């Protein structure tokens, strides 16, 4: 095997083709990682979630990191590491265009909302649960590829 760095263009191509990321955030010195679906466009990763720990962490500290992987033949792989900044797209005047954009990018996959909307304990119907759209502005991209020699 040998490993090489990916160019910026190769990194953005992998993000455009990718769908699943591991998102890392941190609050009060505690790290937290979860898998999430995303859609990449115009230098941002768009995603959907319900309120919970990751949203609470990212609201407190918007600096995040993501890893997106792609498996090739045998042991071959490519992965991209993103350093970025959480940006919430609230359901308020002034954010409608970005929310609609997030919706249209994510909804190209059937049941795109489901993993972000389901929790082990279903909240009572009387509870108003926000649907949170957010995006991660990409500050830095690093990519690597491992190929059979
Ligand atoms: C393939 C895939 C795609 C997903 N896509 C999305 C998505 O697009 N949007 C989205 O919001 N969520 C998605 N999820 C679910 C996501 O990984 C979280 O489980 C979910 O968002 C709840 O996170 P939270 O921080 O709100 O947790 P909370 O409901 O606040 O719960 C926090 C506690 O539960 C534990 N916990 C949370 N998530 C997990 C987990 N996945 N595995 C084990 N323990 C966990 C943590 O240790 C933590 O202590 C996806 C999961 C998978 C496997």
Please give a structural write-up.
With 149 residues, the chain is an alpha+beta fold. The protein has a single domain, classed as Roll (Pnp Oxidase, Chain A), CATH 2.30.110. The chain is built from 4 helices and 8 strands; from the N terminus they run E-H-E-E-E-E-H-E-E-H-H-E. The protein has helices at residues 8-17, 53-60, 96-106, 114-117; strands spanning 2-6, 20-27, 30-37, 39-41, 44-49, 63-71, 77-89, 132-147. Strands 1, 2, 3, 4, 5, 6, 7 and 8 form an 8-stranded antiparallel β-sheet that branches. A hairpin with a 5-residue loop joins strand 6 (63-71) and strand 7. The radius of gyration is 16 Å and the shape is globular. The chain starts with a strand and ends with a strand.
Summarize the structure.
The protein is of the alpha+beta class. It has 4 helices and 8 strands; from the N terminus they run βαββββαββααβ. A hairpin with a 5-residue loop joins β6 (63-71) and β7 (77-89).
Main attributes of the structure:
8-stranded antiparallel β-sheet; Pnp Oxidase, Chain A; 4 helices; 22% helix; alpha+beta; binds flavin-adenine dinucleotide; single chain; 149 residues
User: In percent terms, what proportion of residues is strand?
Assistant: over 45%
Helix content: 10-25%
| Total individual domains | 1
**Structure ligands:** flavin-adenine dinucleotide
**Number of helical segments?**
4
SSE string, helices as H and strands as E: EHEEEEHEEHHE
Estimated radius of gyration: 16 Å
CATH level-four homologous superfamily name: Electron Transport, Fmn-binding Protein, Chain A
Decide which structural class fits the backbone: alpha+beta
Q: Main sheet, how many strands, which sense, barrel? A: 8 strands, antiparallel
Please identify the top-level CATH class.
Mainly Beta
CATH topology: Pnp Oxidase, Chain A
CATH architecture: Roll
Principal-axis shape equals globular
Distance between the termini: 5 Å
């Amino acid at each position: 095997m040998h490993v090489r760095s990916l160019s910026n263009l190769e990194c953005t191509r992998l993000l455009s083709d990718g769908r699943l990321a591991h998102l890392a955030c941190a609050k009060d010195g505690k790290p937290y990682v979860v898998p999430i679906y995303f859609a990449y466009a115009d230098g941002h990763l768009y995603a959907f979630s319900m309120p919970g720990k990751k949203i609470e962490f990212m609201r407190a500290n918007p600096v995040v990191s993501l890893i997106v992987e792609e498996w090739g033949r045998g042991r071959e792989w490519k992965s991209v590491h993103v350093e970025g900044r959480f940006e919430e797209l609230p359901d308020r005047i002034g954010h409608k265009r970005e929310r609609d954009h997030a919706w249209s990018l994510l909804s190209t996959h059937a049941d795109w909302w489901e993993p972000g909307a389901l929790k082990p304990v279903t909240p009572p119907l009387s509870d108003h649960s926000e649907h949170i759209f957010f995006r991660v502005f990409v500050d830095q991209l690093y990519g690597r590829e491992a190929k059979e020699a």
